Amino acid sequence: TDSPYAAIGTVSGSMGDGNAGQERDQGKNWRQYFAALAATMGNLVMGTTIAWSGPSIPYLKLDPSQDGFSIDDNQGSWIGSLMPLGALVGGPLGGLLIGKMGKKGTMFTAAGLFTLSYLLLIVAPNVPTIYIGRLLGGIATGIASLVCPVYVGEVAQP
Predict the structure, then answer these.
(1) Which residues have a Cβ under 8 Å from the Cβ of 86 and sit 6 or more positions away?
(2) What is the pLDDT of residues 68-101, one digit of tens each?
(3) What 3-state class would DSSP assign to 1?
C-alpha cells in the first residue's frame, strides 16, 4: 500500500499489509479466554469475601438457639475488620509468592486460602474460628488482587 507508515510496520512488528495479527492461529484463543476466566474467578471470590460480613453479621447476632453466635457489636466490628487487615498483609505476601512460585502457583495458593477460609466460616463452632476464617480470606484477597490482573495481562494477546 501507499501508506506512509508501511515502512514502520504494524503493532506486532511485521512489515507489509498489516495482516500479521490475523495470521495467528485463531483456534488457540480459547486457551487464552479460559485462562482469563479462571483468573477472574479469583476476583469474583474476592468480591464475595469482601461483602460477606454485611449480610452475615445480623445472623451471627442471633441467639445460638436460632443458629447464631450471639455476637456483640465489638465482635461484629472485628469480623468486618479482619478481612481488610488480612488483605493488607496479603498484598505484599502475594508479591513475594509471585517471585518464588510464579503467577500460576500464587493463584493456586490464593484459591487454597479462599477455600480454607470459607470452610472455616461454614463449620465455625465459635467466634474465634470466624475470626481466623475472615483473616485468611483477607490474606487471599490481598494475594488475588495482585496476582490475577498480572496473570491476565501476561496471557492476553492483543
Answers:
(1) 134, 135, 136, 137, 138, 139, 140, 141, 142
(2) 999 999 999 999 999 999 999 999 999 999 999 9
(3) coil
